[in-house]
Amino acid sequence: MILTTVGRRTGSLRRSPLIRIHDGEHYLLVASMGGAPRHPSWYLNLVDNPEVTVQDRGEVHRLRARIATSEEKAELWPVAVSQWPEYDDYQARTDRDIPLVICDPAS
Predict the structure, then answer these.
(1) Residues of the chain with pLDDT under 70
(2) What is d(CA 45, CA 5) in angstroms, rounded to the nearest whole number?
């Protein structure tokens, strides 16, 4: 899927290809960057401006992103890992807590 955010410095639209994780209710985004020590730029962008779009195949969804609480992450992390098992390896590779982002329909 393609995530579109607004650049926090430039205000330009930024598109990022991400693993499709849809739990039936929400789109989930994992800010893993392959286990790198820093957060990916798309994550920093949505922290500043949580209004995002997700293109999932032929559909475009306007969504509002929020960082999962620790309880939500504990519940939803296995959903993400079921779609991309390497997420557990990425988390083991870094000292940072990899954020899980929940995208709700924009109101």
Answers:
(1) none
(2) 6
What is the SS3 assignment for 59? strand
Q: Indicate the pTM of the whole model.
A: 0.95
Q: Which two tokens stand for residue 59?
A: 């559909």
Give pLDDT, residue 50: 98
pLDDT tens per residue, range 24-42: 889 999 999 999 999 999 9
Please name the residue that has the structure tokens 């504990």.
74
46 vs 30: CA distance, rounded Å? 12
How many C-alpha atoms does 82 have within 13 Å on its Cβ side? 9
| Structure tokens belonging to residue 55 | 């293109």
Q: Structural domains in the chain?
A: 2-105 (2.30.110.10)
> Residue 4 carries which side chain, given as an amino acid letter?
T
